[in-house]
Amino acid sequence: MNSQKKYPQKLSLEFFPPRTPAGVDKLKTVITELGGMAPEYMSVTYGAGGTTQEKTLETVSYIQQHTPFDAAPHLTCIGATHESVLELLNTYEALGIKRIVALRGDLPSGMMDPGEFKYASDLIAFIKQEKGDTFHLEVAAYPETHPQARNCEVGIKWFKHKVEQGADSAITQYFYNVDSYLYFIDNCERHGIDLPIIPGVMPITNYENLVRFSAGCGAEVPRWLKCRLESFEDDKESLLAFGQDVVTEMCQRLLDAGAPGIHFYSMNQTQPTLDIAKSLTFKNA
Ligand code: FAD
């Protein structure tokens, strides 16, 4: 874990692009409320296959042009062409965007054509080739191993390949097991991978959604945690309080161990992220 200790600890936030006018208004309020955490940037997700392209661009433009915060669009390459990606990169450059979260994404159901990029590493190489160092490139990392990787060593090998193509830092898939992150960092060190790897943290707000979503993306909800969360049944208040305790303690352990910050999957909600963030102590505070 030594390699991570040299990086300053920073917070960042992730939002998804709202689909309705009410969602847009809500997100504007959330951005103001969470802005008090002084995040390094606010990232906005992107539907693979370009399914949210317009809404992502609207949200990114709002953050970049109407708030004091730096926006970081996610950009997935599956199903895309070189031409369509270049067009988007030009748009982001014109908006003054300095950071992109570069991803492969998963082909949406019913969409057969994988397009001109196979992996996130192809996208990173393309962005470097077309735009040099215009953008700081974030990539995805998987402490519990990406579901399609044959095993964790193969996963690390392809992660290293992304770094070699030009990734500047990484954000992890969320997890609830601190050791999985610490082991992953040690393994990265052993493979000579040296870049900030920021833990992605998902606050706990809903048991069913968490279990369903985690099964889809290969994040493990430990059995003890599942059992406790399930036991709250309809008592939402107790579930939120317990979830907040568990995730706050996990974040503090990560920061104490030297993690270079926390990236919050905010789910466009203020309170769960704010309640956790306000209790954290940073080494560089
Ligand atoms: P890659 O790095 O390309 O890896 C995908 C798989 O292929 C892995 O199993 C890897 O081991 C393997 N692999 C990589 N390169 C090679 C190679 N050259 N040869 C053989 N195998 C290889 N999804 C969205 O749709 N929109 C988002 O906005 C979004 N944001 C995300 C943000 C974060 C921080 C994270 C962690 C995930 C996000 N995702 C998002 C989900 C992500 O798109 C999926 O997890 C997807 O399945 C993999 O994307 P990747 O960029 O990690 O792919």
From TrEMBL:
Keyword tRNA-binding: no
GO molecular function: FAD binding; methylenetetrahydrofolate reductase (NADH) activity
Recorded metabolic or biological pathway in which this protein acts: Amino-acid biosynthesis; L-methionine biosynthesis via de novo pathway; One-carbon metabolism; tetrahydrofolate interconversion
Keyword Nucleotidyltransferase among record annotations: no
Record-linked InterPro entries: FAD-linked_oxidoreductase-like, Mehydrof_redctse-like, MTHF_reductase_bac
Alphabetical UniProt keywords: Amino-acid biosynthesis, FAD, Flavoprotein, Methionine biosynthesis, NAD, Oxidoreductase
GO biological process, one term: tetrahydrofolate interconversion
Reactions that this protein is recorded to catalyse: (6S)-5-methyl-5,6,7,8-tetrahydrofolate + NAD(+) = (6R)-5,10-methylene-5,6,7,8-tetrahydrofolate + NADH + H(+)
Cofactor(s) required, per the database record: FAD
Pfam families recorded: MTHFR (PF02219)
GO cellular component, as recorded: cytosol
EC number(s) recorded for this UniProt protein: 1.5.1.54
Superkingdom per UniProt: Bacteria
NCBIfam families tied to this protein: fadh2 (TIGR00676)
Family under the similarity heading: Belongs to the methylenetetrahydrofolate reductase family.
Name used for this protein in its record: Methylenetetrahydrofolate reductase
UniProt source species: Hydrogenovibrio marinus
Native organism taxonomy: Bacteria, Pseudomonadati, Pseudomonadota, Gammaproteobacteria, Thiotrichales
